[in-house]
Amino acid sequence: MNTTPPPKLFAAQEPIFPRRVTGFFRTFKWWIMAFTLGIYYLTPWIRWDRGPALPDQAVLIDLAHRRFYFFWIEIWPHEFYFVAGLLIMAGLGLFLFTSALGRVWCGYACPQTVWTDLFILVERWIEGDRNARVRLWKSKWDMKKWRLRLTKWAVWLLIAVATGGAWVFYFTDAPSLLRDLSAGIAHPVAYSTIAVLTATTFLFGGFMREQVCIYMCPWPRIQGAMMDNDTLTVAYREWRGEPRGKKRVEGAGDCIDCMACVNVCPMGIDIREGQQMECITCALCIDACDDVMERIGKPRGLIDYLALSDEPAERAGATPRPIWQHILRPRTIIYTTLWSLIGVGLIFALFIRADIDMTAEAVRNPTYITLSDGAVRNTYNLRLRNKHGEPREFALSITTEAGLVLTLEGRDSNLVVVPADTSSIQRVYVTAPAGDPAATTDVTPLRFWVEDVQNGERAHRDNIFNGKAR
Amino acid sequence: MSEHEKDIDTETGVETTGHEWDGIKELNNPLPRWWLWSFYLCIVWGIWYVIAYPAWPMIKGATEGYLGYSTRANVAADITAFNDKNADLRAALAEVDLAELEANEDLNRFAIAGGAAVFRTNCSQCHGSGAAGAKGYPNLLDDDWLWGGTLEEIAYTINHGIRNETDLDARWSQMPAYGEILESDEIDNVVQHVISLSSTEFDAAKAEQGAVIFDEQCSACHGVEGKGERDLGAPNLADAIWLYGGDIETLTDSVKYARFGVMPAWGPRLSVSDVNAVAAYVHQLGGGE
After folding, report:
1. Residue-range definition of the domain harbouring residue B133
2. Please, is B194 exposed, middle or buried when counting C-beta atoms within 10 Å of its C-beta (0-12, 13-18, 19+)?
3. In contact, A420 and A403? CB cutoff 8 Å
4. Model ipTM value
5. Is residue B115 situated within a structural domain?
6. CATH of the domain at B226
7. Which of A209, A377, B148, B213 has the fewest CB atoms nearer than 10 Å to its CB?
8. Which fold has domain A356-466?
9. How many angstroms separate the Cα of A333 from the Cα of each of A85, A104, A144, B37?
10. Residues from chain A contacting residue B129 (CB–CB below 8 Å)
11. pLDDT tens for each residue of A443-461
């Protein structure tokens, strides 16, 4: 009887040596890489003058002072719905792109892909292209291998430090933080954040690479639910390519089994085996195959962006459907509409929000008190917000049908000065004189008004007055 | 180690682990080896954590861990740091002339915020969390004060208390129990007169007779018009505010037995800055004078 040892339950990581490739998609991805990395590394250094009281960094998440600055927009914590709206848009955007183009996020824009691409580029500059790297991998650890490996790791580490470093610049003034960091006097949290992000960048971009996508990332597992038969994915026209073979014989398919598609794949798969969990649709195999097809004088598109629904039609002899027919479908149109509606709503909300604002909180402990002359009084805490870069004088008033009177705690007039870019709480009293109907009515509606004395801008809040109910 | 045949699943072409349950075989799609390493790493981390941090429950407390981490110590350190940070403000608040406190905006804001905490801890039990008081416990939100509503008067009351035998400087009001002095119909008449001071619903005939008694017995402290006397702590009987209640029954009890509300002296219990802070807090609740 033929016996073998029990099967291994754990597998070593298969090394992948993606070959250099040129073509439309590769060029497109270089541009995306330059664009996204450029945004990431340079944004914190853009300056934006907001006057002396406010930071001059264009994009700043000021957690300490609870402010988010984005160029001309300043978001306060109570306006967090803008962030929620943007996150919903980001989510819908991912739904849209996934239903139309499959794992296009994974293949083009995901930081894991972008940084891995950059790390592979560095690897190729230092160690050479695929064949040289395979040889180096197999060779002994001699001086040359150590030199190449250490050089590569050093460059990776530099990129990783810059990546972790750029992150912290978003949270405080970048130039002064850089000074503090280099002088060794920055906050320990800055250093530890940089250390953690440096380690993850170095590890994920240099060594984990496709393992992150296959085993660690939850997003690919969710994406399956958003794809359907019309979703474009990278696929092999098997009906055109098979039977594959290097020999040019009668009845042979277009695939010459040159392995170009396999050699360029950063995920280490063979796209000719059909849709696979590992495929991030980076489209590099399309470039590689098109290059070969041109050289052997066959039409391009043996490997191409295809939908599952294309297969039966094309097998029956139909010509490939144009891309826009796959993308323009009710599903994608609905996603686009929803996405746009939220976007328009957010822009609208951004334009109508006032630079001064107020909330009115009635003090309900107790609901009312009686004064010695028999008048009934309610207390409210008004939070007055001044988003201007200089102090503003606010005039407070009420409108009501009853004879209610507004007075302010600690002030002789109805004017309050609110310092620049801050909010302050003013305790106010509303009094119904003895004999006024409001004093004996259960609930009387009233409206608080706040007016910016300087420019006449107004805001209001509705509330109620509690009388001494009989 | 047992040896067995290599078993390939016909449907998927994947090797099985050789495990079989009622004909169901387990495919062997091997996990990446680094996953196993990260599992071992977690175990190592766990052992280190147990040594480094408080982990094992003992009969009393728990192991301390060599890092000496303690949430209680952290809180204590936070409180110390907070107190150190505010030390200057506290010192200033202890020395400030209360008449000038409101002019110093920063110090006043600090006093009110701190005073709110002092109030909730020490005063809310009687005066209520919203300072609205209760029967027998004055409402601190209104404009009616037994002993005065300026910052200085409020601070004095807090420092020395009311009818407090441990403090010679305490506020002290004294009203005889008129049940031992007047006849019950005389008391009825006085009650009707007192009601007449602030209300239109009273027995005019009784009130008229009561006015004479009021003049003789009560006006020394409460004033001829019943408007009270702060120096003596005698309440204003002519306003719309009642400490114990303005109905006939409650007023009759008040006249018969008198009322002796008490308040402890907070001077010996609270720091000077805390007394000043809570005085500032009470003063800005709406009734401050």
Report:
1. 90-167+269-289
2. buried
3. no
4. 0.83
5. yes
6. 1.10.760.10
7. B148
8. Immunoglobulin-like (2.60.40)
9. 19, 18, 56, 46
10. 365
11. 999 999 999 999 888 999 9
